Known about the structure:
The protein is an alpha/beta fold. It is built from eleven helices and eleven strands.
Amino acid sequence: MKRIGVLTSGGDAPGMNAAIRAVVRKAIFHGVEVYGIEHGYQGLIEGSIKKMELGSVGDIIQRGGTMLYSARCEEFKTEEGQEKGIQQLKKHGIEGLIVIGGDGSFRGAKKLTEKGYPCIGVPGTIDNDIPGTDFTIGFDTALNTVIDAIDKIRDTATSHERTYVIEVMGRDAGDLALWAGLADGAESIIIPEMEDEFDEVIERLKRGHERGKKHSIIIVAEGVTSGVDFSKRVEKATDLETRVTVLGHTQRGGSPSGRDRVLASRLGAYAVDLLMKGKAGCMVGIENNELVDHDILEVLNREHSIDIDMYRLSKELSI
Ligand code: ADP
């Protein structure tokens, strides 16, 4: 392989830049040329493709977002769109592609592989919702952003003796809510992987109030319901004054944490190694701190799961 491409697709995540940097530098280290494809699959179809040099990825390791931009592209889900992408890859002499993104982006990568273009997926999403890796790039940074926000909310919650409902991202996964809840000592954590435990939440709130607790923090994952709706239910079931904070896109931004930079560097470089070895249609990941790779389809057919022990612990510690 003499020339490869790299793109970022789907929701952006802090650390994507560090992954791009690792891909470019590792490929050049191997004597392979790298082309950056801007705006994900949309840019691939449109031919928004440029050669990357060592200097192209200088001074980006500490930056959030993605220097290659990201996009969602409905057209790429069609055979026609994929054909257009392949024409562009052929035109630029690109022999293999590294796709940094989430599960949707991986499905696109698998389609290209099936059509004869070897692709490797690098998991980049704050949701941590991809099976086959303990952590995705961006999760740790987003977690720290959420913790920082909840710490601040806790100050005002204490001053005003209120119940706070905080809605966090994660799409259909509860990892961000669970980790942030445990890290912040939240009274209740509402995540899509567990049954509706509304009665238990109310019971815990009342119990806390009776023993003089001045405030409560409830974390709701966006995959369950909106924070606004949940707080209305709480107010209806109790006499407690409730406030809602939707953390929203602040969770997707910011300088990547040390952990995310290291993870992105390792996974990006490993993806290049695999492509050089002739592997295709797989995603890279980290399990028990070891670099691993799995077939994309096999991984995407698996159900995402959360750490049940962690969930139980969060309950035990917030009695
Ligand atoms: P993420 O990668 O973060 O999960 P999306 O699910 O929005 O984000 O997917 C990103 C892009 O990947 C989509 O806009 C589309 O271009 C491409 N994609 C998603 N699913 C498929 C599919 N089944 N086949 C081909 N391309 C897909």
